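Records of this kind hold a single protein each, on a pair of labelled lines. Below, a sample record shows both lines together.
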Amino acid sequence: MPVTLPSVGTDIQALTHAADVPLQVNVLGAVTLDFKGGWWVRAVRQLAAGRGVGLQLMAFDLRAASPVLGEVTLTMPTDGKVPEGTVEVVAGTPSRYRHTLPLPVVVTIEKPPGGGPPLELAGTVPGKLLCDGMADFPPRGNVYQLQKPVDLAPPAAPLEVVAKLMQLPLTTSVEQS
């Protein structure tokens, strides 16, 4: 079966869910959350030798309800500074795909510990989601894994880490437009 990658200009939208996501909050310890939402990427360029496509993250939004923290959202920054991801064909027969999705994350906690207005935290470095060994792209039912925990700090005090996103196992169902 021939390898098919998205053409430049193709938009790919994914509905996602992530169950039992541990968010470590310094004053509370670990809080487990179940997120639902989605992401949207656009194919922006062909990689060398036609073995992959560069993908720009256009939107990312996950939401979870917590009895302790209220609504917790994971989004991308609004400043447009999102590194390009890739989908690549990896060696083997049949061909397999690897999707790397850089994720500079913004976390908003509706009811922060100690009260006050919603708390916005930003990743001190971008996270990276990886789905390796996919039989098809766009993925259908595949699980993306966060490659390492992401430290979270107030944007005005990036060295003041107050929380950590420990894992983010995203299961996808995808529509291509």
